[in-house]
Structure formats: structure tokens, C-alpha cells
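TOPIC: backbone geometry
CONTENTS: sequence, C-alpha cells:
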Amino acid sequence: MTTITIYHNPQCGTSRNTLAMIRNAGIEPEVIEYLKTPPDRATLLALLAATGEPVINAVRTKEAVFTALQLGAPGVTDPQLIDAMLAHPILINRPIVVTPLGTRLCRPSEVVLEILPAAQQGAFTKEDGEAVVNGRGERV
């Protein structure tokens, strides 16, 4: 099977739910705990480009360091945001999932269902109790 990669933070419920949905499809992904093993510049740039999203969407704007560095100020450029994410990986929004069908920032976690190459094998309920997939493996 083709490799699927998740840039994961085990402390994040959205990231845990996303990983669980990948596994619910019968897939064991490559798990990169990006706070322990941050992406280098080339990898981060490739991930950002592959998502097709604006750079700011990949930044955790509620982190204290975002405010401390004044990254929300007018005129902050994409290269400045990228530099900040490389210097402070906690600023990288998560989880980012790479599959043969695409790369997505999986917020909310069920976005991952759009890019999984295999169907869900059973029901799935998020940690907060929200049903996402029914017993037939279909999105609710």
C-alpha cells in the first residue's frame, strides 16, 4: 500500500481523531510528531503548496507565540510566517495528512475522509461524541 503520512501532535484531539479515522480505514500511516521532528524548510514549503491553502491557514493563530511575535500585524508576509513556523513548530497547524489522493490540513478531522484511498471499515465517533461514520462505513 502507498504510504500515508500524518504530521501529528498527540496532545491535540483533532489530530488524534484524524489518526484514528486513518486507522479505521485499515491503514497504518507514517506518523511524524512534528514537535519532536519538525519539517525542514523544503518539506514545509512542499506541504503548504500541496494543500493549496493560504499560508496563514497553516498557522496556529491562537498560540501565545503568534501574538508575541506580532504575526497578525498588517504587512506580515508569507515568508515571515514560514520563518516563524520553522523557528516555533508549535505554530504549525495540525494535522496535515499526505496521501496519494492529496494533502490536506485536516481541520475538522473528517476532512481526512476526502483523501483516504480506502473506505472506513466501521463506525467512527470523535472523542467528543460526535458521530462521523456510521456502521456501514458511510459519512454521517
Summary: The CA atoms of residues 58 and 93 lie 5 Å apart. The beta strands are 5-8, 30-33, 96-99, 102-105, 124-125, 131-133.
